[in-house]
Amino acid sequence: MNLYKLASDYSKFGCHRTGSTTQLATEAWLLKTLQTFTHRLEKFEFDYQHFEAVTEVLVDGGLIPSMALYYEAVGELVDCRNFEMGSVNISWDESMAYAAIQEIQKQADQGKCDALLVATRCANDSLYAFNVFPVLKDLLPVILVPGCEFERLSESNICLNYSASVSQRTANNIIARFGEGSSKSTVVITTPITGWFECAGERGTGVALAIALAEQLSKTCTVELVLASAHELGYLGGFQFADSLDNSPAAVIHLGSCLATRDARIEAWSNVNCSAFDKIFRRQGIVLNKVSNPSSQADWVGEAECWAHFNCPMLSIAGDNPVFHTPDDRIDNVTDEKLPVDMFRVLKGLAEALIKTK
């Protein structure tokens, strides 16, 4: 299995946000790809509120990259010049930056502004997209622009156009079963399949690794591969599927963002005391966080939260890199042929150690 090619093929579809035409094409490709390996393949459908927006930011007559902060407001602004402007610094925990936007938003609203323009000061000073919950807030429209544009904005002639709406839609998780054992003895491998822009490193490498790991582990146990949609919408697909299950999995392996990517900052979380984990993570220079209250969502990160209530043996590994959640998260920027192969060896050792403890 060529892991780099799988990640590359995934990213080439383009924008991977839930409900986009390119993401629907990605799902069709995944279903076709997985037919070769699985005993059972199905879609898990769920409802959600879909936010659609078109933004334009003209600076001295020229367009700059921009996007809406999703679910803040619907409606239309044309040739808007009555707006507040600010910037936010984004680090590992983007919730702090989101909270800062909300504070600027309050000030703008009190000042009777029609919109808020925010420059996203992230690691590469690019346009940064925020994960959000798919619930319309009906607040002031927020338009995001690259952090690198901030310095010139205060001295420029700026005009904003904004149009946004919400509609009821359905989305799909893809569930692939490898092997034919009972549900109680099944090991779940889960990774998201939606996100921002091409998300080659945010999602693509993880998708490739999850497929390869499921195929490898199925030689010795039954595996259910859960490819979850609506990750960027409060992990909605992951929660919907996990909550639908009657039986706890034997174990869960969550593969999060930016695995097998350059300059990544990776951490792991587990509720299992396993000497093999300690050795492997120490060798890789990856911090292992011991989860003392495994049934608490707050003690996990990413879509491992969706599975916390089962209180079963679980391993979660995820991280970020300098182009995380930005348009620069392209396959040529984030990985190569070797990095996914090296990470697969690490994950294989970890997964085999986890299965022995269940």
- Uncertain parts: none
According to CATH, the fold-level topology of the largest domain is: Aminopeptidase
Beta-strand proportion: 25-35%
User: Which architecture of the largest domain does the CATH hierarchy give at level 2?
Assistant: 3-Layer(aba) Sandwich
- Helix-strand sequence: HHEEEEEHEEHEEHEHEEHEEHH
> Helical residue percent?
25-40%
* Count of separate structural domains: 2
> What's the number of extended β-strand segments?
14
Name of the CATH superfamily of the largest domain? Zn peptidases
Q: Which radius of gyration do the C-alpha atoms yield?
A: 21 Å
Shape: elongated
CATH class of the largest domain: Alpha Beta
Assign the structural class, choosing from mainly alpha, mainly beta, alpha/beta, alpha+beta, or little secondary structure. Answer: alpha/beta
Average per-residue pLDDT, rounded, comes to 94
Topology, element by element:
Elements: H1 3-11, H2 21-34, E1 40-59, E2 62-64, E3 67-68, E4 75-80, E5 83-89, H3 94-110, E6 115-121, E7 142-146, H4 150-153, E8 158-178, E9 187-192, H5 200-217, E10 223-228, H6 236-244, E11 251-255, E12 265-270, H7 275-284, E13 287-290, E14 314-320, H8 331-334, H9 338-357
Parallel strand pairs: 5-6, 6-7, 9-10, 9-11, 11-14, 12-13
Antiparallel strand pairs: 1-2, 1-8, 3-7, 4-8, 8-10, 12-14
Helix pairs in contact: 1-5, 5-9, 7-9
